[in-house]
Design brief:
Order of helices and strands: HEEEEEHHHHEEEHEHEHHHHHHHH
Radius of gyration: 31 Å
Largest sheet: 5 strands, mixed
Number of helices: 15
Number of strands: 10
Oligomer: single chain
Length: about 450
């Protein structure tokens, strides 16, 4: 391994009663911003010069036919290169370590006369001004805050040339590396699959676009007070309808139960992909939809709030008293009859449509099979937390997104949140552990 010695010179003032710690701290802050890039540029310059000597021979005594660790981009030759000097104008790279300016050495192919920079060939830096790792850093910030704020924060930690447009472009680059528009399921089998969607302010339609999400619940851990769900991403679509997610979920094996929010398209998708698998209607969505149905029926607000509370109490009581599905449905039908007698047809229709899916969680075999999870899921709370994060990120300042733009941001957000395999592979490739040893010593000691 090549050893490179770099000299660090500090014009430090003598210590006296006027010396202040803040002055030396300012020196350290500036060094933290500028020294890594300068050291990397100096090291690359030295390594390039040694590489040119290796493949072309000494400066004044060229050698023909020497092999090279790179190939000519013109004819593919791997040997017999001629020295062509070093460019006077440095090549700029924005990196996670700050700005790096490198003066590129060039060689010429004696077979096709192509002149090129070996460093760009070896490290695949053609046409690049921002490195992939910096793009990943900017995209990770941009998935949590606005592009302007992410660029500002990046600027405060050394990336002074970061701009909102650069953060946007970095997010699109990283989304492409992840495989957007389709990330693909993180696993083939989950005990519980939860399907839900939210709206985002994007696209040409007045009501925006749909963001649909499928996650698989694989386990829970932690104390009873702070139970933590273990979930994996199975599918994501933005600006598409539920049937469009079928291709992503086609390879996922049948779960024990599917939890839906009550939307017709979601139920049809679940029944199409996994026929025979029981479907559980989310209780939170049921009570919420019941409230809006009563509002559409022009029911008195006080009476409607009482009926909604009565419905919630009925659902919870069925679990607490360990009723069978038949016993719970009997009470449910009695409650539905009171709504019928009051003449609220929309609310009654909602209850009737949901009837077959409300008490799936009371199935004894299902409860036994999912006992390790704490029992069957009765709501989509796990996925709702993700939806809140999505809405908090993309519903900012009344801005309206393009479908492609919002898809890229949401894809990076959910891939990072669920630690999707594509995200794991990308971070491992772009943030590898450092295996190049270095040491710090006084160069001019004595």
């Amino acid at each position: 391994m090549t050893v490179i010695n770099l000299a660090l010179s500090i014009d430090a003032p003598d210590l006296d009663e006027a010396s202040m710690w803040s002055g030396f701290e300012a020196l350290a802050v500036q060094m933290a911003e500028e020294l890594p890039g300068a050291a990397l540029a100096a090291a690359l310059d030295e390594l390039q010069e040694r590489l040119i000597d290796q493949v072309c021979g000494p400066k004044w005594s060229p050698v023909r036919g020497l092999p090279a660790p790179f190939r000519c981009p013109g004819c593919g030759a791997g040997d017999d290169f001629a020295r062509k000097g070093r460019r006077s104008r440095p090549r700029r790279f924005d990196t996670s370590a700050g700005r790096v300016e490198v003066r590129l050495w060039h060689v010429g192919c004696r077979r096709c006369a192509k002149v090129f920079a070996p460093l760009l060939e070896l490290m695949d830096l053609h046409g690049r001004r921002r490195t992939d790792r910096l793009s990943l850093d900017l995209a990770e910030l941009a998935s949590q805050m606005s592009f302007a704020r992410s660029a500002e924060l990046a600027g405060s930690i050394g990336h002074r040339r970061a701009t909102p447009a650069g953060a946007y472009a970095a997010t699109a680059e990283v989304a492409g590396m992840l495989g957007v528009p389709h990330l693909g399921p993180a696993l083939r089998r989950a005990e519980v699959i939860i399907l839900d969607g939210t709206g985002v302010r994007a696209g040409p339609l007045r009501l925006g676009a749909d963001c649909n999400l499928a996650i698989g619940l694989t386990g829970r851990s932690g104390s009873m007070r702070r139970r933590r769900a273990h979930a994996e991403l199975l599918g994501l679509t933005v600006g598409e309808r539920w049937p469009d997610m079928a291709d992503q979920l086609a390879g996922v094996l049948a779960p024990r139960v599917v939890v839906v929010d009550g939307e017709e398209g979601v139920t049809f998708l679940a029944q199409r992909l996994w026929p025979g698998v029981p479907v559980q209607r989310c209780w939170w969505h049921l009570s919420r939809g019941f409230r809006w149905a009563l509002y559409a029926d022009k029911a008195p607000s006080g009476w409607g709030n009482e009926r909604r509370a009565e419905l919630v109490a009925l659902l919870r009581s069925a679990i607490a008293r360990e009723l069978s599905a038949a016993e719970a449905l009997k009470e449910y039908d009695a409650f539905s009859e009171t709504i019928r007698m009051a003449g609220h047809h929309r609310a009654l229709s909602l209850l009737e449509v949901a009837r077959s899916q409300v008490f799936t969680c009371l199935n004894p075999e299902l409860r036994k099979g999912l006992a390790f999870l704490g029992g069957p899921e009765i709501g989509s709370g796990v996925i709702e937390r993700v939806m809140r994060d999505i809405n908090a990120r993309v519903d900012q300042g009344g801005s309206r997104w393009s479908i492609a733009g919002v898809r890229d941001v949401i894809a990076v957000l959910v891939a990072r949140r669920f630690n999707h395999p594509a995200w794991q592979h990308l971070t491992q490739a772009l943030r590898p552990p450092n295996r190049i040893p270095f040491r710090l010593a006084k160069f001019n000691a004595g």
